[in-house]
Amino acid sequence: MAPPTSPRADLGPPAPRDAGDDAAGLGRGRAAAFVAPALVLIAVFLVFPALWTLYLGTTDYRLTGIAASDPKFVGADNYGDVLGDGDFHRSLWLTLQFVVGSAVLGQTVLGFAIAWVMRDRRGLLRRLVEGLVLLAWILPGSVIAFLWIALLDRDGGTLNALLGTPGTAWLLDHPMACIVVFNIWRGTAFSMMLYGAAIGNVPPSHLETARLAGASTWQTLRDAVLPRIRGHVLTSLLLVSLWTFNDFTPFLITAGGPDGRSEIMSVYVYRTALGDGRLGFGAAISLIMILINLVIALLYLRALRDRSRKAAVA
Amino acid sequence: MGYSGRDFSTRRIGAAAALVMAGAALAGCGDGGSSTDPNRGKDAKSYSLTITRNAIEGGKNTEEAEWITRTVIPGFVAAQKAKGVTAKVTFRGQGVDDESYKTKLALDLKSRSGADIMDVDGIWVGEFAQAGYLRPLPEVVGAPADAWDGWPTIPGTVQKLAMFEERRYGIPPATDGRVLFCNKRLFARAGLPDGWQPKTWQDIIAAGRALRRLPSVTPIQLNAGTAMGEATSMQGVLPMLAGAGAEIYTGGTWTGGGQAVKQVLGLYAQIYGPEGLGDPKLQQEAKGRDKSFEEFAAGKIGILAEGDYFWRDVLNPKTGVAKMKTRDQDVGYALIPAVAPGKGVRGQSYVSMSGGAVTVMNPNTKYPQQAFELLAFMNSAEMTKARTAGTPELTSRTDVNKEILAGDPFLTFVSEKVLPVTSYRPGLAVYPEVSTALQEATASVVAGKSPAQAAAEYAKKLEGIVGGAANVTPR
């Protein structure tokens, strides 16, 4: 369409306004028909369930008993109860530790470190490391949960045998630390691959220049690599923090215990909604979880937009 | 990229919500006219039925699973064939925690699916009935339900297990009783008497102190905490509460954090406190109860409070989940004493708790008459005898008990000494939550809280559960 010989001319002020009006030249009606299927899907599978959750959260609906056959409208009671529930506060705090510890710090830092160390390597070592990290990511959750229980078990666990500390109940004494380490191990592969690709996009000449200028590793990372991959960092952080926030696998290892000391948000919902059978209350928590998810996503999106705006200005 | 990330996670929650919603929508659908007719599918020449219970071959309650697949199903199919009807009966075994099993059943019934015949714990009958998941037998099958020839052989107290608001919902195959098991070999090493029978709680503590001197032996296992679920209530809090002279629910009110509850929690504090008479960690572990079974079978636990199930299905040298070859020689049993003679509930000196499963019918079955026929067949004298042939147990049928218990000193002990002093749990929908509150109280004592503080927290929680202080009496 645009003459390939003069790309700069297209970036003049009039062009974007034209594109904004009707970039594809479909016209309003056909454009609406084009996006209608997607909007219907979003409405059916996203908006309606969210609204339904909002509604369920205003009832005393339960799995068994009278309230299962004849739920009553209780207004905002559930929402008030959730926000005032000590278990909810504990769960929120544990989830924060879980997300920051395992996703934001653990997976991101470790994933980046592996990608950085492996950037110039070829051959067996690289394939071995990547293979092992990937294996942790692609194995089914129930399988690795068994492996981790066998590793950390109090009687005859592998870790106790290795360290010579028989009888140390890792899962009981340090439940949060266990699931944080577990999730770092489990999810590092994603960050590693993403950063691996991102580092590959840093022009070798920049790294070469930095090296010739005598920059330390830290200076190279800060001034040559990071500005190039900031978008990838934000994307990766967004994805892994949302995944981790909603992750249910730790339940398979600690079941939220002992005494709720590893009861992160998804486990808390499961316990109240299906364990205790309080479906209405569980729906109220779920809606609050949706809102927290949206807030996290909005923060990251804003950061991304600020960045691209700055890039455009520059 | 970033945008799709948000999409993805919200959709995941949305999908979960959609599942809950689908369940709700199904539950909300009205009764289809024909699905409540007791005679639907009555004349089918060929039909299939499914049985489920928390039993699986080679695992949990393996004997029951084997009994169903090898005796009940072939027997029933043959009997139907003789009538010219082709019956296909499938057993869907489960081998999970009771709480997970209950959740699964509730979800099955809510979505109007699930097995035609299922086993539920007696205390679930009330809440399942209130939810509309189960319906009284006469409503589901009509006249044959009350005309069953087995009813006269089941004592009224045992029938109550399967009843809610004076109506029958199923047939209870058996009942049970709770005792203190002890390892005689450890007792001998600790210098304790052979026919040990404690008369007070202090006798138990004293035995525990003697056992503590043995290396790598946990003196006492009294179930505590929430990880053990109902086992904590049934084998721990409730019998002890009865021993302190209180029942959890009497005269229309629930028992709050009074003297009796404090005494019970005090006993927990003594066992799991600094003296080290119990293993607090075991009470918190996800598989703690199973582990306590293994430890007892391996001779590492001195005294353990359990139901007769422990003798029959856990330690059983042939079919148990934690086999103990020397069970008959090395394991002793004693009545659970009241805090002091005459101080127990109803002025008793010894106490117990009883419960049991109930075999119920799924009201949504396509073949109510055939399903009831199968249910009655499973509980016939012949089948009951076959079920208990390997390991006798306290069946609900008095005619069968007379025959099978004669050669079994332990079950005769339970039948003659324990059942007369036993108590039952209230079959009310709110009971499981009260039970959880009791479990949480023991958990906090095991974790180091004072009994008085734990009792106060329990009382506060209880008021929230049962609808206000008016329904609570401190006892």
TrEMBL record, chain A:
Residues 93-300 form the ABC transmembrane type-1 domain. GO terms for cellular component: plasma membrane. It is found in: Cell membrane. The chain crosses the membrane at residues 31-55, 92-116, 128-151, 163-185, 229-245, 279-301. Keywords: Cell membrane, Membrane, Transmembrane, Transmembrane helix, Transport. Its main location: membrane. It holds the Pfam family BPD_transp_1. Residues 1-23 are annotated as: Disordered. It is a multi-pass membrane protein. GO terms for biological process: transmembrane transport. The keyword Membrane applies. Belongs to the binding-protein-dependent transport system permease family. This is Sugar ABC transporter permease.
